[in-house]
């Protein structure tokens, strides 16, 4: 689509090819080799698209120098060639992040030309060294480095997982960095990866103003943004709502099931609030016809809870089973 629409650039999130974060799977040589093979396949495929289209995609490379064994990279591809690479500089090692365990940090910026625009590349944490947080005590500041090189556009590829209100924080913290006219294109991962769920929320800011915001979680289409368009955008209120949290729970569960190779779900259903919520989320994630809800009443179960569980399953349309717990046999 990007080629057909004569786009200049298509941007994919951080570590798009191997997934974020693959943890000790990185120590499997075949995993790294396959990730590099896919990168070569993308380079080869770029020969058949518009020659003006540039592709930025995240991948893992081996560190051929001293230090940690791997590097967190972004590739810049155009017309069948790998024209530039960028090595992530700021590696988080707090909360759910453990990148310092695997990756060696870079120190250089990467700038390439698209038409008359100077375009820079950063990866996730690289934009967070001047955000006044205790977790961001790094020696260098890639964002300041790019300001000093006078880039027109800074691409930031991310795998930033969901935290309540984090989407609003990203906008509040990053938008002011574009106040001097530099456009920032922030592209974030969407979907579940093991215990993490990525909430997307990709955006474009320029002159301190929001120019574009992507809020869809279940839409696999790609949005086209014209940086010359002067219209402003507004982030939807849903980003901090219970509805959004529900969507993210469904997204995380659905992706975990699909990526793990499961086809159906089995769960215990008591008729209580907790199991009812789980059953509803499961049906929304994979479809009620693929959910097997098992009631396991005992002598301690009330008739009310038994009836509630059965009614819930009927209303949701999932499979219903009863396997009584026989305490005497125990």
UniProtKB/TrEMBL annotation:
This is CN hydrolase domain-containing protein. GO terms for cellular component: cytoplasm. Pathway: Cofactor biosynthesis; NAD(+) biosynthesis. Residues 1-241 form the CN hydrolase domain. It holds the Pfam family CN_hydrolase. The keyword Nucleotide-binding applies. Transmembrane segments: none annotated. Keywords: ATP-binding, Ligase, NAD, Nucleotide-binding. GO terms for biological process: NAD+ biosynthetic process. InterPro entries: C-N_Hydrolase, C-N_Hydrolase_sf, NAD/GMP_synthase, NAD_synthase, Rossmann-like_a/b/a_fold. One of its GO terms (molecular function) is ATP binding. CDD domains: GAT_Gln-NAD-synth, NAD_synthase. The keyword Nucleotide-binding applies. PROSITE patterns: CN_HYDROLASE.
């Amino acid at each position: 689509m990007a080629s057909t629409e004569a786009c200049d650039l298509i941007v994919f999130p951080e570590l798009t090819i191997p997934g974020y974060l693959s943890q000790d799977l990185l120590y499997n040589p075949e995993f790294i080799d396959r990730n590099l093979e896919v990168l070569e396949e993308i380079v080869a495929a770029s020969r058949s698209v518009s020659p003006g289209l540039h592709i930025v995609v995240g991948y893992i490379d081996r560190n051929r120098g001293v230090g940690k064994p791997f590097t967190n990279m972004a590739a810049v591809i155009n017309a069948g060639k790998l024209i530039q690479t960028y090595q992530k500089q700021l590696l988080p090692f707090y909360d759910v992040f453990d990148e310092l365990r695997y990756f060696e940090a870079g120190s250089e910026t990467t700038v390439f030309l698209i038409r008359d625009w100077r375009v820079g590349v950063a990866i996730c944490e690289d934009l967070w060294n001047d955000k006044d947080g205790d977790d961001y005590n790094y020696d260098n500041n890639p964002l300041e480095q790019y300001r000093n090189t006078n880039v027109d556009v800074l691409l930031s590829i991310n795998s930033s997982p969901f935290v309540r209100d984090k989407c609003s924080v990203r906008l509040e913290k990053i938008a002011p960095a574009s106040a001097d006219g530099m456009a920032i294109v922030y592209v974030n991962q969407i979907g579940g990866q093991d215990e993490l769920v990525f909430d997307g929320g990709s955006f474009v800011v320029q002159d301190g103003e929001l120019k574009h915001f992507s809020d869809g979680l279940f839409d696999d289409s790609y949005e086209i943004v014209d940086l010359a368009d002067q219209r402003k955008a507004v982030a939807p209120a849903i980003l901090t709502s219970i509805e959004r949290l529900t969507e993210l729970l469904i997204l995380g569960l659905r992706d975990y099931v699909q990526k793990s190779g499961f086809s159906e779900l089995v769960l215990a259903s008591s008729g209580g609030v907790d199991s009812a919520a789980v059953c509803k989320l499961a049906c929304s994630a994979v479809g009620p016809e693929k959910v097997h809800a098992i009631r396991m009443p005992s002598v301690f179960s009330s008739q009310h809870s038994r009836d509630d569980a059965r009614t819930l399953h009927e209303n949701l349309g999932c499979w219903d089973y009863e396997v009584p717990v026989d305490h005497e046999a125990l």
